[in-house]
Amino acid sequence: MNTGSFFINDEHDWQDVEPGIQRKIVAHTPDLMAVCVKFDRGAVGTPHQHERHDQIGYVVQGAFEVELEGEKRRLSPGDAFVAPHHTMHGAVALEPDSLVIDLFSPRRDDMLKS
């Protein structure tokens, strides 16, 4: 039988990812992972693609210029993007303390090792 779990924000520290970018792994199962990512204004999530992971990014606060396969859009709170595996994507934070919840399927085991 599977058991549930809770994520208590204050019990987890931010991890530095790149200059101006920090993350917290919120929760995960083998098939799904939720990650909270905080950006300083001007911080860049360098364009990249995933070999096997689909990604959805949901903007919680601030604003981002998100690029998907060369198309750029400004995303604000409540907006989201979908980047299936093998889709080039990246983001630039347009406001201080911009926050996105990234969902990955399957789980990003590489993030658990850092």
UniProtKB/TrEMBL annotation:
Residues 37-96 form the Cupin type-2 domain. InterPro entries: Bacilysin_H2HPP_isomerase (IPR052535), Cupin_2 (IPR013096), KdgF (IPR025499), RmlC-like_jellyroll (IPR014710), RmlC_Cupin_sf (IPR011051). PANTHER family: H2HPP ISOMERASE. This is Pectin degradation protein. It comes from Halomonas sp. Victoria JH.
